[in-house]
Write a structure and sequence with these properties.
The protein is mostly helical. The chain has six helices and no strands. The chain is about 80% helix and about 0% strand.
Length: about 140
Amino acid sequence: MLFRSASKLAYWSSNFFVDFLYHQLIGLIARVSIHCLGIDAPDNEKIFFTFSLVNPLFVYALSFMFDTDSKASVVVRIIYFALGGVAPIAIMVLQVVNERTIEIGQMLTKYFYQWPIYNLNLAYLSVINRKMVALLRH
C-alpha cells in the first residue's frame, strides 16, 4: 500500500499537482486550438486555469462518496455529460428565447454553478456567443 511509505498529505498533494498539470496541458491545447482556428475568445486562459485548479478537487470529493472507483467513474461521466454538455447549451438557448425562458435559465444556473464542468463550458459558450446574446436580448 502506498500510504505506508508516504503520508496522506504528500500522496494527495502530488496527485493534485499531477492532475493540475494534466489539466493545464489540455487547457494549453484548447487555447492553441482557439488561436489557430481564429475563434474570438478573449481571456480564455483564465477560464482554463480556474478549471485546472477546481476540477481535480471536485472529482476527488465526489469519488470519496463511493466505495469503488468504477462506481465513481460512472457517476462522474454522467454528471460531466449532463452538466458539462447538455446544461450549458440548454442555458444558452434559454437566454435567447423569451423573457420567461431567460428567468428559468437564470434560476437553473444558480443550481448548476456548483459544478466545475458546467462553469467551464458555460463560460466558454458565453465568451463565444456574447455578441449574439447581446444582439438578441436588445
